[in-house]
Amino acid sequence: PPITVRTLSEAIGHPSKDIMRILWNEGNMVTINDGLSEEAALEISLELGVELEIKRQETAKDRLTLSVESDEDPANLEHRPPIVTILGHVDHGKTSLLDKIRSANVTSGEAGGITQHIASYQVDHNGQKVTFVDTPGHAAFGEMRARGANITDIIVLVVAADDGVMPQTKECISHAKSSGAPIIVAMNKCDLPDADEQKVLQDLAANEILPAEWGGEIEVIRTSATTGEGIENLLETILVTAELHEYKADPKRDAVGVCLEAFLDEGRGVMSWLIVQRGTMRVGDVILCGETYGRVRAMYNDRNEEIQEAPPSTPIKVAGLEEVPSAGEFFFVMPEIEEARQIANDRRHADRAEVLSSRRKSLSLDDLLSAARTGSVSDLPIIVKADAPGSIEAIRSELEKLDHPEVRVQIIHEAVGGVNESDVYLASASGAIIVAFHVIAEDRAEVLAEQEGVDIRRFRIIYELTDTIKRSLEGLLEPEA
Ligand code: GDP
């Protein structure tokens, strides 16, 4: 392939090891001369904060040259609204909170629009905007991350006060931590008589979410999606967190962002919910989104009003793409429709297997260890699924005994139960392997692991597990053959 780690490094002016590290984290154990798909090159550049332009040379159709748009002038950076995702156990009130926050901030005249499903919306709180993304569950959140689309700035973790931390809450905590985004807890359903605040705080602390009121760093806001109590406080806490992190973007450049979801509308053709991350999107812009492209014919905001332009952090519904793009796909504004068409076509016709193998080679324990050998990985992230709490305890304590000077075994998630889709997405997004102790993977998780190239290792004896890892770690110390 015409783009390699080396040529990309030269084009964007970032060390090749930074590029390789991103790919390794995705489970793609590349070397400096390995080829990259265009999509991977664009995504890596985006992750490194550089806008890459792929130019096609007239002479040879498959020759590509890379050039970097001179952007990211710090002088152009402006504050942008934070993008917030709400995660939590089923029935703890995610949808109710999203609805309440929105309805509290929508005037009655617009109430008709609120019944429509929207993928994301923006509210104005005391003159400051906050963008909420409606992710259908934490597996979808993990899926977006596994694809490299990390759009969330702040995570609101919902925990029902009458129920406390539940299995899915734990999965959400692992996803949230692995994403690195700051977490705010909404202790919801505080209106219920059997709400038990102390138990929730204890549960949180037991899961390494130490509440601020107990000297930790995580704000726990009491809310009720039913009465509206605490919603103001939640919005304020989000804004304070945003202020602390100073989220910025350049509104002057061409728009770049992510597709949240898309569908075919009988009257209007393909409609795509996009979120603009950087730049300003305008009606008439040409966009490339995954394997499709098009010219923005019309653009609507979250209130279904037609708009002409959308600055960073704005959720928009766009008409004009040729085909329905997948959720989690990046979009880029391109100068020429012909160029966008060509790249989209090439992507569509690229051998699917080849695209997958260039983006996600299987991430096995051996790959991780060989990456550790070259000094590029110092953590060995592991997800532990087991048949009983006692097994997890035993595995944890055995793994903690594996003391290695350079490589740290890090359990990023542990739970009783079979391997599920959330585990696979978490593993894929964080470059982890999954250890299944006396449990098996759910069918769908198995298929997904295959697709994502996630290594699921089954063990029946703890010694087997620790011995495998230990021997591999020790192998690192031996000189390379
Ligand atoms: P999700 O699965 O997390 O999206 O949860 P939902 O928003 O669908 O809420 C599940 C159920 O809990 C619904 O019947 C809601 O009406 C109810 N619920 C949500 N928030 C509250 C709350 O703050 N107080 C009370 N009493 N009920 C709530």
UniProtKB/TrEMBL annotation:
**Does the keyword field hold Phosphoprotein?**
no
Specify the Tr-type G domain's residue ranges.
79-252
Annotated region (G-domain), positions in chain: 82-230
Give a GO cellular-component term: cytosol
Q: Which UniProt keywords apply?
A: Cytoplasm, GTP-binding, Initiation factor, Nucleotide-binding, Protein biosynthesis
What residues does GTP bind to? 88-95, 134-138, 188-191
UniProt-recorded Gene Ontology molecular function terms? GTP binding; GTPase activity; translation initiation factor activity
Function statement: One of the essential components for the initiation of protein synthesis. Protects formylmethionyl-tRNA from spontaneous hydrolysis and promotes its binding to the 30S ribosomal subunits. Also involved in the hydrolysis of GTP during the formation of the 70S ribosomal complex.
- Please report the name of this protein according to its UniProt entry: Translation initiation factor IF-2
Q: Which organism is it from?
A: Polystyrenella longa
Q: Which portion of the entire protein is included?
A: 357 to 837 of 937
